[in-house]
Amino acid sequence: MSDAVLDRLAVLFGELLPAGAVITDPVRLRTYECDGLTYHRAMPGIVVIPDTAEQISAVVRLCGEYGVPFVARGSGTGLSGGALPRTDGVLIVTSRMRRVLEIDLPNRRAVVEPGVTNLAITEAVRDRGYYYAPDPSSQQVCSIGGNVAENSGGAHCLKYGFTVNHVLGLEVVTPDGEIVELSAHDPGYDLLGAFVGSEGTLGIATKITVRLSRAPEAVTTLLAAFGSIEGGGEAVSAIIAAGIVPAAIEMMDALAIEAAEAAVGCAYPAGAGAVLIVELDGPRAEVARQFSEVERICRETGAFEIRVAASAEERAAIWKGRKSAFAAVGRISPAYIVQDGVVPRTALPEVLAGIDRLQEEYGIRVANVFHAGDGNLHPLVLFDDGVPGQGERAEAVSGRILDLCIEHGGSITGEHGVGIDKSRYMPKMFTEEDLDTMQLVRCAFDPRGLSNPGKVFPTPRLCGEVPGVRKGVHPLVESGRAEQF
Amino acid sequence: MNGETAAARALAATGVTIRPAGPDDAVAGVRPRWVALPETPDEIAAVLRASAAHDLAVVAAGGGTKLHWGAPPERCDVLVDTCCLNEILEHEAGDLVVHVQAGVPVETLARTLAGKGQELALDPPPDGGTIGGLLATAIAGPRAFRYGTARDLLIGITVVLADGTVAKAGGKVVKNVAGYDLGKLFTGSYGTLGVIADATFRLHPLPAARAWVTAAGTGEMWSAGMADEIGAMGAAVAGSQAEPSAIELDWPDVNGPCSVAVLVEGTAATERAQAVRDLMGEKAQVTDDPPEWWGRLPRPAEGVLLEIGTVPSRLPAVCARAFVAAGATGARPAVRGSLGSGVLRVALPREIGPDALAAFVGALRAEVGDAGRVVVLSAPEDVARGVDRWGHVGALALMRRIKDRFDPDRRMSPGRFVGGI
Ligand SMILES: Cc1cc2nc3c(=O)[nH]c(=O)nc-3n(C[C@H](O)[C@H](O)[C@H](O)COP(=O)(O)OP(=O)(O)OC[C@H]3O[C@@H](n4cnc5c(N)ncnc54)[C@H](O)[C@@H]3O)c2cc1C
């Protein structure tokens, strides 16, 4: 895109948006050059920070008029480069759209703007005994709009599901600038479900209706230390086989424990090859009974120490090590890659053995942290960027881990998204037909491919006319929209 | 060679079992010419390719229990009967995941899973049916309050598009955000985007115990005060910490009493049911079995069936409105629904006739406004001709664009769905 076009757009945006909402100063643009995946960087052409859906719609329409791509950005905590800007495009940041618009406790729902943080929703209703269930570790910072785009999960999604299970309605600015409502109530295709997890490629969410959940009557958290990761894995299987669905089951291996200890002094039992955190919540009577069963299972599968949190403080102490794990590895390694892959739970032992072999083969250490209940691995691949070649080897290990996940019938991402980072793995997980079919959805929403182009899909086909002989009036003509083609 | 023969030959050449259609194969009154009985996704693809080449309209069928739902297709040449796609492909109990073909009856799957102490936490459709049909109509039962609907438990899908393309999305792991979720799009699409070949679901352990708490015979006759009382009861139970799985209302006749029943399941179900009972009042009773009407559609089944979805707090008023509006037409509706998730189903005798039905639906739509939907799930065409079965759909233009991409020649269940899609 020529600079002249961007200059012109910046002027037009200035006429539409409030003072200070259009950024073109290179020093200030730099703030937005990457998201949480910091090794991909690009200076945005223009940054806009609108206040309303109408302003976003106007910006998007102008982008369409000039054929300029646009990228949405919430808090920029994404870990797959989804909010990586385009040098030839516009970055639309939702950070000024932070109002909680409505809280409707009788119907257990809230309506919020996209820039509201995940935790702010819970904070708005906590004192009345409610909360917003999906709890990504980044919840203090990440925006609900970003959560919708990524279909974010969290430790407690094992029992409660993901963002998509807790979003009841969206207001969306489509890539042609229209403002449409997608509601779980409406008959017709589940466009709401299709939009959630689309990583900003189908438009921009400007208003989100979320489900609020009743805070559980009781919560119990247990930490069990095992000699080895196998012991912990066995406990997980036995818990599931006993018909218990805990709110969360998290596991860390020895290296991850070492890092957490160095970073936050979490004081997990010494000598543990793995620790398991199991949290049960729900009605008091249910939790009490399931808890004794979980405790028994952990002992039978070889836990050498079990700690039970009796208070909120003790619970926080147990979680502290786990929650700090990503950042903590910085204490034991100059650099690291956070991977996000999924395997069927029953394949965990094999996949972990495979990761061990990779460590040996490449001479690279991997710390394992995972949502064990649903087989979502977060291997942290450690390397020293000062040593030539280590970065490449770490990158190779990280990629081979995804191959392992695919080989075992899993997925290349459980919650961090595909973004720019993993689009090249999509053809390993899906056939060309699968990807072409997904592209049909993209073309219906965004035929010109202006909404977050280059993300999720590897070099998608152009949205040409669909092959096939048409009979009768083209539905687009019928609905009065054909001129857009 | 005339078109009919050429098409018949092309279908025969697929090698898939094809038979001429009979009167029993009619789709909402429209009789197809052939019935195809594919046994694999590739065979579905072969039938769809042959259909594409000869401009044949296709409707997919599972158990055939909901074929009278939705509007009649504008045309229907080939009925793709999925009954031979009846294998449970993989059930890995340790993963709480099952992969099934579309033609597997929901009840068969339930029996198999129960053998391993697990279940697909969707209520069996009222008149039976297959996994494919359950997905295509997205009909939800009482337990949607706790577990969500089919779209929430579906984690992977294989579909065959109008041009014979076989595509999949999702996978066999519960947590997975790679690519667009085509499963969501196909769930509730009434066969208008393609044929569902197989699906993968997340499972739940079978609850250790179940208990129902029923407050029966609340009141003698409808009154505005009663509707409020029921609404308050529903809200109290929905907001309780006993984790109820379902909160159902049954009001079979405006002149008779209504009941509210709550399901509690899992560990310590009886204790939790007692806690629910405390909220529902003295008259409520805890039982091990559901009331006889539980999970069924209101009667008369062969008449008109409507579905109303709105926020739970609006349900009492909507319910009241239904009785008043019906009263004006002389018809007596039966009402049943989910107080917790805000879904009501209303049955009317077919004798209501087209004008009164249109007035009735119009009155309900005015009451619900844009806070929900009023859909005619099933009605004989002569009774429903005066109403838009689906009502206003906010994102209809986008939906048309989706349809146009997936099925540009409008051959998949044409006319069955919203806006005549
Ligand atoms: C320390 C740390 C821990 C994390 N833990 C978790 C975790 O436990 N679980 C988890 O799932 N993720 C986790 N993440 C990843 C990340 O926080 C989530 O993906 C989050 O949802 C991103 O929100 P955001 O507001 O930062 O979005 P951004 O990074 O700004 O954007 C992410 C994507 O969403 C799009 N987008 C943003 N806003 C909108 C909108 N309004 N409409 C449409 N598209 C939009 C962007 O274009 C981009 O593609 C973690 C990240 C960090 C740094």
Attribute tags:
heterodimer, A: about 475 residues, Uridine Diphospho-n-acetylenolpyruvylglucosamine Reductase, domain 2, Uridine Diphospho-n-acetylenolpyruvylglucosamine Reductase, domain 3, Alpha-Beta Plaits, globular, B: alpha+beta, 4 domains, five-stranded antiparallel beta sheet, 13 helices, binds flavin-adenine dinucleotide
The CATH architecture classification of the largest domain in chain A is: 2-Layer Sandwich
Could you tell me which chain pair has the largest interface and how many residues each side has? Answer: A-B, 100 and 89 residues
The best one-word shape of chain B is globular
> CATH fold name of the largest domain in chain A, please?
Uridine Diphospho-n-acetylenolpyruvylglucosamine Reductase, domain 3
The main pleated sheet of chain A reads as:
8 strands, antiparallel
Number of strands of chain A: 19
Mean pLDDT of chain A: 93
Strands of chain B, count: 19
Strand content of chain B: 15-25%
Using only C-alpha atoms, the radius of gyration of chain A works out to 24 Å
Segments of chain B where pLDDT lies below 50 for 5+ residues?
none
Oligomer: heterodimer
- Summarize the biggest pleated sheet of chain B: 8 strands, antiparallel
Terminal residue distance of chain B: 32 Å
* Structural class category of chain B: alpha+beta
Name of the CATH class of the largest domain in chain B: Alpha Beta
Please bin the fraction of helical residues of chain A: 25-40%
Radius of gyration of chain B: 22 Å
Q: Output mean pLDDT of chain B.
A: 92
Q: Any guess at the CATH architecture of the largest domain in chain B?
A: 2-Layer Sandwich
Strand content of chain A: 15-25%
